[in-house]
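sorry for the late reply, my laptop died twice this morning and i had to redo everyting from scratch. anyway the thing you sent over, i finally got around to it. pasting the sequence first so we're on the same page, its 288 residues, then the predicted structure underneath. double check i copied it right bc i was rushing
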Amino acid sequence: MENIDPLLEIIRRLRGKNGCAWDQKQTPLTMWKCLAEELYELEEAIVNDDTDNICEELGDVLFQLLFILEIFNKNHRFEFSDVIHGVAEKMIRRHPHVYDTAIVNTDEELNWQWDQIKAGEKENARKKNALKNDVLKNDAGGRSKDFVQKEQTKEVGSALDSVPKGMPGLLRALKVSKSAVKEGFDWENIHQVLDTVKEEIQEFETALETQSQDEAMMEFGDILFSLVNVARFAGFHPETALSSATAKFEGRFRLMEKSLAQKKIDLKRLSPEEKELHWQQAKLRYDT
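ok and here's the structure:
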């Protein structure tokens, strides 16, 4: 496997003396935005099954990750080896059926095992941080409550606490739904979810009739949230479905634009009936 040192050297030169002014002033937060953009470009390449583009976008994502890592390394927060060892230990710990003697026979058992191990990790980390803070308070000479008492009186967390608030809407809706499902809160089947979608559409139409924009927006959000769960029951990711549908619309629209341009026809000047005719022709050409 190729060594990543050449990429790290490029990053260090860009951020070093006589390097690039833009690269020198970047922070983990600003680079996260760049990474997010690259991730979406990688998603598009994967959806389109474009091998060359997938390879290129993977490189861009890797470069952004290493860039962020180098910033933390330069600030003496952690090193690359800490990242590698940390994730390696975690993956081994979360696969005891591969690296230990645990036995799982179904996907449900596998998911349950993963969730239990992950929950245990978070609880251990919370106790470790609480104990660390307790020690720091004692070292500072301040009064500290008994750790056991703190454990007994701590606020009960939510099953949704692990879902990041900054995630894209559809992705976060899916994560929130899955977290609730793990607690036993779910529809019984996809038909019940579809019935919910129909109800939400009716409520949205009612909100439109009352001309209440805030209410209409909320009802529209309910439709989207319900549709996310339709995708979950159907077994595909809503983001992937939306990306595919958007790509299909874009392809059809571009074909229609090209056809109209060749005929020197202005789309804006067409009647609704004429637009529909050209659109149907573009759909037929695109789908075949």
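Residues 239-288 form one domain.
thats about all i looked at so far, will dig more tmrw
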